[in-house]
Amino acid sequence: MSVVHRLTAGWLVDHLSFINQCGYEICDSFAHPGGVTHNISVTSPEDCHSISTSAAPHSSSDGPPYGPGDAIETEGKRAKMRYVFREEFFDISKPHIAAVPEEQLCQGCPEVGLTEIKANSKREEYQEGAKSDIGKSLATARKKRKRKCVFNQGELDALEYHSKVRKLIWEGTLHLVQEGLKSGFLHHTTAKLSCRKNNVPQRIVCGLAELCEMAKQFPAVNESDHQAACVLEEETSSAEQDLLSCVMENSSNCAKIIVLMGQRYLVPPKSSFLLSDISCLQPLLNYKKKYDVIVIDPPWENKSVKRSNRYSHLPLWQIKQIPLPALAAPNCLVVTWVTNRQKHLRFVKDELYPHWSVKTLAEWHWVKITTAGEFVLPLDSLHKKPYEVLVLGRVQGDVKAALRKSEGVLPIPEHQLIVSIPCSVHSHKPPLAGMFWSFL
Questions:
Q1: Are 42 and 77 in contact (CB under 8 A)?
Q2: Is 339 inside a domain boundary?
Q3: What is the pLDDT of residue 194?
C-alpha cells in the first residue's frame, strides 16, 4: 500500500511503493528503459505463481543483457520482466537547505507569530544575500541586502497565509513522522542509506515536454477525423502525430512499452492516456468518457519556471479554457495543485472553480520530508516552502445524480496533510489514489 500511516491529521505516504505496485510487468520482453531496476521472473503458463530472480539495476547508459531477438525459456515456461523504480530517486536523506540553529529552534515550536516569521525570513534573505555577494563591493552588497529585506505585497500575503496554516502543518507532520520512525519507514540515522553506490543522474532526459510542444504544430483534430482510441499492442513505435491524435489504451493485464522520439516509456496495465498540449484536448473529448476524479497540475507562471526554461507556463485565462465540465461525471471530485503564490490560490477558489461550477470544499497540503523526517526546506523559508497546496472541490450540477453518487461517501475534511519523501525527478507529485477512495 502507498499509505504507510493514517492519522487524524492526514497520511504518511510511500510514493516509491505506489509506483512499484502499479504492475509494471512485461511478458517476453527485455527492453530496459532508463531509471528502473528489472526483476526477471519465470512463470509457467498453467500456473500464476512466479519465481523471481533479482537483477542488478541498469542505468539508461547500460545496454540490455540480452539481444533484441533473445528470450529465456525454461522447460516450456515463458519469461516475464518486472520493472521497479530506482530507489535512489527517493533517497532524500538531507534537507535541500538546512535551517540555521535559531530557525531550527523556531521550527520546534508550533506557535510562531507573523512578526517572528518575518524576522526569520529577513534573516534568511540577509544570509542568502551575503552568500551571493562574494566578490562584489561591500557597498553593492549592502545595498542589495537592504533592498531584499523589504517585503512586497505578494510576499506579505504569503507570510500571512503561512502564519495561518503553520501550526496545522507543524503539528500534523510531527505526529506522522513519529509514527514513521516507530514503524521503521523513516530512519533517525542515514548511515544505512548513504552506503548506496548508485548515484542519481543529475538530469533525467525526457522528451515529453518537447512532444507536447510538437503537438501545437499539428492541425486541429476534428470529431470525425480520427478514431477515438488506439489500443497498444506489443512494443510500439509510431509516428508521434498518430500518438498525439488519439487516446492510447493499454487494456491488457501487463505493462506495455511505447517508443516516443527514440525513448522507451512504460505504460501500466489497464490504463489509458492522452499525450498532448493543453490546447489540443479534442481527442480526449472524442473519447466520450466521464471521470469521477480529475487532478490538475497546471504549469503556473513563476520566476523559477522562467529561469529554468524547463517548460512553458499557462496564463490564467487559458487555464479557464480547460473543458473540465465536459469531462466531469456528476459529483466529480476536482483537485488542483497550486503554488504557494496567493494570487494563484485566490484565482482557483474565486474564479476558476466558479467558472467550472465547482464548489470549493477544502485545502490540503503536501509536506515534503527527508528519510529522517526533517522538512526538506526550512518551514519558515521566504523563497520556498516545504509544502504545496491542493484545492479540493466538487462539480455542482444534476442534484439527483449527485445525491445518488454521494450515498455512503464520506465528507471531505477541511484540512489534511499528505506527508512523503519527494522524488528527485522534477515536479513528481505524490500518489493520491489511496487517500481518495473514501470520498468517491
A1: yes
A2: yes
A3: 46
